[in-house]
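It is worth pausing here to work through a concrete case rather than discussing structure prediction in the abstract. The textbook approach is simple: state the sequence, then state the predicted structure, then interpret. We follow exactly that order.
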Amino acid sequence: MAEQQILECVPNFSEGKDMDIIKQITDQVEAVEGVDLLDVDPGQATNRTVVTFVGTPEEVLEAAFRAVKKASELIDMRKHSGAHPRFGATDVCPLVPVSGLEMKDAVEYARRLAKRVGEELEIPVYCYEHAAYEEKRQNLAQVRKGEYEGLKDKLADPQWKPDFGPARFNQQSGATAVGARDFLVAYNINLNTTSTRRANSVAFDIREKGRVKREGGKLTGKPILDENGEKVYTPGSLKKVKGIGWYIEEYGIAQLSLNLTDISVTPVHVAFDEACKRAEARGLRVTGSELVGLIPLKGMLEAGKYFLRKQNRSTGIPEKELIKIAVRSLGLDDLYEFQPDEKIIEYKMAKKRGEQKKLNHMSVSDFSDETASESPAPGGGSVSAYMGSLGAALATMVANLSSHKRGWDHRWKEFSDWADQGIALQDELKKLVDEDTQAFNKIMAAFKLPKSNDQEKAARHQAIQDATRNAIMVPYRIMEKAYEAFEVIEAMVEQGNPNSVTDAGVGACAVRSAVKGAFMNVRINAADLEDQDFVDQIVQKGKQIEQQAEQKEQEILKKVEEKM
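Step two, the predicted structure:
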């Protein structure tokens, strides 16, 4: 199953004092379904508000446009003053790929947003950072140079013609910079010292910019200058990292205050380990760390796997366990309790949307009771997906037990890879538990559509057919994913810990049942679809998978019997 596509938008509006104006702007964001408003941070001195929202790409673009439009109606740049550089009512509007998207996707979305803002709102728009059309416009400071007061002259310069929108001065709204940038993680690392100077020394060792070169290599030496009279720097050890040291009176400790501007280059776990190494070289110790703001789930999972690999331990464990490993290893609960549902973007989105109520988040008892209730969903399809996930889980368990078996230490990576494969299938099948119930609900919703005239009848009929096709494909995907689990199960029967061979055998039985149960759902739902060619094709493929599953189960159980 494809990773969920999540796009983040962090517009900065040139208003930080009038909360009524800010509320009207953020109301536009919250009005778009599929978008979650995560943070609103107004600043009095800067007279500027930073807003953070996330969601699916198309919905984020719509929310961003509505917010920019409302800001252009409410904010008058002729009356604006503040400490922060700015040149427009919506000063900057960066898009950030969080998950399921690459930077090239964010660039495409940014340029689409810029075009719409320029054309429909008649606001000059410049594309910056990764979305820039030319190198000199990559740097936001260059794009915004001269600020609002110099914008009229800038627009008159052909070299600074906006990428979208008119090349004329919009007195009320100014101009807007729309960009695509990497996800930035604000990350502080705690030290066992109160010395800002010592913390700065470690920060300068780490940050990409490094420290100023001085004559004789001494701290008291004069700075070395280049031919332009600028200070020369010795680079630090980590790319895409900015940082300083500071003292936090609230906690009574010094910290490294780091901005990780591209966690695909330097993730949090690499920054943490490097800080530990550099601090120890200066007689200091790292006691923990803290995340300021949010982090993508992927960043936490990678950290958990990183620390497990250092121990030669299997990484094929449930998501929540990987997060626990990451929290403990990074010391994220050193200063206060780390709350994943407040700090991890995907978890915070799920919390806001009430997704904890999903079937795959229920206890075993609650799921069983929900199935037994008078409601027709969850039904056989969801239970089939759940059985498949249990079969994959048993295979994963055997892989993890095998990676820890005494005398098999040299094989930990082999079994870790199998466990990774098993846990991925388990996760996909758990998601399909809910998708099958959602597919049923979509059919019910389609039947409730109005049918008072021919147009409504046609639309209702098409909606029913579309929902039925989806209700066929979801259990078919359950069949496919459940069958894939046989590969891990068979490998564990043949190569895994012999003491757990029957667990793998039970997994084979569960997976076979999942395939057969899901196929029954495919067939009964297919009876209501008018596209007979599609039905014939899917049913034929389903029969093949069912037959293969029955054969594979028998082969595996025979091997289990031989080893018992």
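Step three, interpretation. The mean pLDDT is 92. The first helix runs from residue 19 to 30.
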